[in-house]
Design goal:
CATH topology of the largest domain: TIM Barrel
CATH architecture of the largest domain: Alpha-Beta Barrel
Strand content: 15-25%
Shape: elongated
Number of strands: 19
Bound molecules: pyridoxal-5'-phosphate
Number of helices: 12
Distance between the termini: 6 Å
CATH superfamily of the largest domain: Alanine racemase
Length: 383
């Protein structure tokens, strides 16, 4: 499946982001195999599917029969519906009252994060003569959205009194599942399980319980419960250097560009804004038509490496908005038009998103979502 970029992108620009949908399908299968048949997998597609393309990834998962997908915002769910994605969609984020009719009109599952919001959903559904699907959000130690665990029983009680709301799920979110020390995550899990026992005590069926992001999917098997919510792991990366990637997933992106300029730089001649780097001996430097205006972080200045002609070469000087420079060394070869890989594989070599994140002093999530729409996406690898 190859989607032509909307503008004459891939040919008009020598820079592109190649998305391997076959690899994403393989990652989904690897996570499903790891958690086993009793645990559902809900990949998270927020922020343009971590840069991979919301609609294309949504369609892929719909085709694979994913039981549910997760997004952060209403408009992300609406976009998936507009494009014909029929899987259940959970909108994980907080909502304001005016948004509720859109959820109901488009069969999107709401997060009910307080009693007031639950009542607003119930009222709206009753006025519209519809049923609302909700997941209840319990805050067990993140202090973001959700009712605190110690007062959660009131929300669960209130949901039982609703006549137009189906509580399909109940969930919490870990603050520290990406850390080496899992004691806080374990405490959050205990609090959450205690909240969920409400249903057993009343001999009621327990809605789908979920808690695990990528970190917990990898590190805390007891938190898998009924469903896991992998984001970064589905896109092939570990959430943090201390979290071992024990599930065989791989990155699905190749961010490629081409050499547009070659020059020889004399010893002592500084390269780029701020003159932060200059060679100690005469060297060969190429210029690439990509920069922080595309989402290649400026923090990678003098830190990152790229792949060209089967070798790694350093980014030298400051990354500019639309261009950056790479040192090939005194005897390096590189010609105008040569393919350069910023992220992903070239031959046997690979620049991983984990590496880029470490060089930039951030997490892989932020590297992926930063790759903006100026970079045309090219899809391959599935169907
Ligand atoms: C973003 C998000 C996830 C996925 O996080 P990763 O670290 O990318 O796995 C899971 N659950 C919720 C509620 C989220 O907001």
């Amino acid at each position: 499946m190859i989607h032509a970029p909307t503008i004459s992108g891939a040919t008009a620009r020598p820079t592109a982001l190649e998305v391997d949908l076959g690899q994403l399908a393989a990652n989904y299968a690897a996570i499903a195999a790891h958690v086993g048949p009793d645990v559902k997998v809900m990949p998270i597609l927020k922020a343009n599917a971590y840069g991979h393309g919301l609609v294309e990834v949504g369609r892929l998962l719909d085709g694979l029969g994913a039981p549910m997908v997760g997004v952060a915002y209403l408009e992300e769910g609406l976009r998936l519906r507009e494009e014909g994605v029929r899987s259940p969609i959970l909108v994980l984020g907080g909502i304001v009252g005016e948004q509720i009719p859109d959820f109901l009109d488009h069969d999107l599952t709401l997060t009910a994060s307080s009693i007031d919001k639950l009542r607003a959903i119930e009222d709206c559904a009753s006025v519209m003569g519809k049923r609302a699907k909700v997941h209840l959000k319990i805050d067990t130690g993140m202090e973001r959205i959700g009712v605190h665990w110690h007062g959660a029983e009131r929300l669960l009680e209130a949901s039982l009194a609703c006549t137009h709301v189906d509580v399909d799920g109940i969930f919490t979110h870990f603050a520290n599942a990406d850390e080496a020390d899992l004691s806080h995550a374990r405490l959050q899990l205990e609090r959450f399980e205690e909240v969920c026992r409400f249903y057993e005590r009343r001999s009621l069926p327990t809605p789908l319980r979920h808690a695990a992001n990528s970190g917990a999917t990898l590190q805390l098997p007891e938190s898998h419960l009924d469903l896991v919510r992998p984001g970064i792991l589905f896109y092939g990366a570990s959430p943090a250097p201390c979290v071992a990637k024990t599930i065989p997933v791989r990155g699905a992106l190749r961010w490629v560009t081409r050499v547009v300029y070659f020059k020889v730089v004399a010893a002592g001649s500084p390269v780029s804004y701020g003159s932060t780097w200059s060679p100690t001996t005469q060297t060969r430097v190429v210029t690439l038509p990509v920069g922080y205006g595309d989402g290649y972080p400026r923090a990678l200045s003098n830190r990152a490496e790229v792949l060209l002609r089967g070798a790694r070469h350093p980014v030298v000087g400051r990354v500019c908005m639309d261009q950056l420079m790479v040192d090939l060394g005194p005897a390096g070869t590189g010609y105008n038009g040569d393919e350069v890989v910023l992220l992903g594989r070239q031959g046997d070599l690979e620049i991983t998103v984990e590496e880029l994140a470490a060089w930039a002093g951030t997490i892989p999530h932020e590297i992926l979502v930063a790759i903006n729409t100026r970079v045309p996406r090219v899809y391959r690898g599935h169907e």
